[in-house]
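From: lab user (bench 3)
To: helpdesk
Subject: output format question, protein + zinc ion

Hello, I'm new to running complex predictions and I'm not sure whether the block I got back is the full result or only part of it. Here's what I submitted:
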Amino acid sequence: MKPQKKHVLPCILLFCLFLCLSLFVSACGVGQPPPAAFSSIPDSAASAIETEKAQESQSLSPSWNSAAPLKVHFLDVGQGDSAFLQLPGGETLLIDAGNPGDGPRIIHYIRSLGVTHINYIIATHPHADHIGGMAEVIDNFSVGEIYMPKVTHTSRTYEMLLQTIRDKQLKIHNGTAGTVIYDQEECHAEILSPADPALSDDLNDASIVCKVQYGATSFLFTGDISAAAESWISDPSCTVLKVAHHGSSGSSSAAFLDKASPKYAVISVGLENSYGHPAEDTLNRLKETGAEIFLTSQQGTIVFESSGDSVWLSVSKRPGPSCTPEFSPAPPSPDGTSGQEISTESTVYITKTGKKYHRSSCSYLKSSKIPMELSAAKEKGYSPCSRCHPDESL
Ligand SMILES: [Zn+2]
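Helpdesk reply: Thanks, we reran it on our side. This is the complete output you should expect:
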């Protein structure tokens, strides 16, 4: 027992010294105060828990708060589809490339974002309103992986695309359910459908359906699938839904929308198209889900951003009634002005015979150059010139 007693006094002294030191340190305000939740826990225990929590959250999400946003650009390509994604890690993903003739404007748009490399390309299915501009896009960028469904088509547009891919010595990956395209930290892009394109002889149902999850938010791209292919997808839940087949009545079944339960629904569609898209009953079913609906025919190119916690509308070139009024500046155009300025400039120029409106410097404006208020030009049915308003005319 004696040897133990010998240690009691030094121990008490040491404890007092530690206590004094602790009081002095906290009085000087040195060190971080423990979070309120830890205030009733002894400091040593609290700091141990804090360290453990910090290590745990570090291993799960090393830079959650400072992470870059996921940006999803739904390009207004008229009666077609094209979405360009800037992933939080800096990689890029293009899903479809509009109609033939849309290539140059898509290229311009992507370039104006400062992007020179497209890491991943998905051609959802071989119809011309989805792959129309893709050969030109592939020709004008360095490209990583290309995903296509294992189906073929005999159209010239499709054959040109295959030829371009061969010429650039790129490889096509079969886009089948379960294929993970991207998986970095909290961002995960995976193909959900088709499990087997042979399940249907409808090319639309062979569309690659891709879900891009970022933290608690997700975007679902459905190509042109019908209600039949929608039923193959077990978990279509998403924050933002790219509505299937331009809002056709044969897609977006009530059962599918019920499971998807999107907060926002984007319909990529041309104004007054001959297909009657989007169908009234589809719009009604979407409204019943409570989703806020956006149409590229009304809002133009639409950009959403996700922090991983929440999604917000970032840009809409032609704000419509369902858009929020908060627009951040659009990507800069080559002449240094921002896309937002393009859409809000007040004076444009028309010609005596043309049906387009132009900027003062546009090379299409030859001898005649009639100034007009932008709003008046739009009211009179003039549309943006693709040369001097490339972003807006997308
Ligand atoms: Zn289509």
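A quick orientation on your result: The CA atoms of residues 58 and 312 lie 26 Å apart. Let us know if anything else is unclear.
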